[in-house]
Every structure is written in structure tokens, then in C-alpha cells.
Specification:
With about 120 residues, the protein is mainly beta. It is about 0% helix and about 50% strand. Strand 4 and strand 5 form a beta hairpin. It is globular. It starts with a strand and ends with a strand.
Amino acid sequence: QVQLVESGGGLVQAGGSLRLSCAASGRTISNNVVAWFRQAPGKAREFVGGMSWSTGSTYYAESVKGRFTISTDNAKNTVYLQMNSLRPEDTAVYYCAVRGRNGGIYINTSAYEYWGQGTQVTVSS
């Protein structure tokens, strides 16, 4: 089993930056695919970006490409989401997720077995 805890959310003005953290416990996730999703009020949870920890390959949604970056820290078993040039439409609860099976970076939520509790990001205009 893997437990995930996100942190780093908050209120920021448009154009600002935030870095979200996702700390994993239970076992190492350095052989897994990790991803970030977000869910705005009244909307479905959507894929933000993902990384294959073992290969370092990444894939981002078009809406965040060039602004958001996923990174990892093996020693801390932690995944980060650096968010720059934030926009009001980035406002959502952000979740990290880990895929427990082999495979690539998937954009659908059903591909991920482990989820954090979420952290709120609010971007004011």
C-alpha cells in the first residue's frame, strides 16, 4: 500500500507561483508512474501532468504545458508540481496519484490506484 499526502496549496495572485509536494509512504514509488490531477468545482477531475519516475519521461496537459513542471526527490520519496504563471482557471483541488501497475503515463483517473487527499489552489485575478 502507498499513502500519499499533498501539501503546498494556497492562495496566490495571477502570474504567481506555487510548488505542491506529494510525500509517499508505505513503500518507494521510484519505479512507478506518478501524476497530478485537478478538480474545479462542478467539473470532472482532469489530468495535469505525469512522470515515469524510472525513465524521467513526462507528459503534460496542453493547458499547463510550459508553465507546470513535475520533479521528484528519490531520497524523500516525494513528487513535486512546480506551477508558474498561474491563472484564475488553474483554481482547483490538486491531487497526486500513483499507478501501481506497469505501463505508461495515462490521463484517465482509473489508471491510478493510489490517491492523496488533495490540496486547494486558488488563483485570484
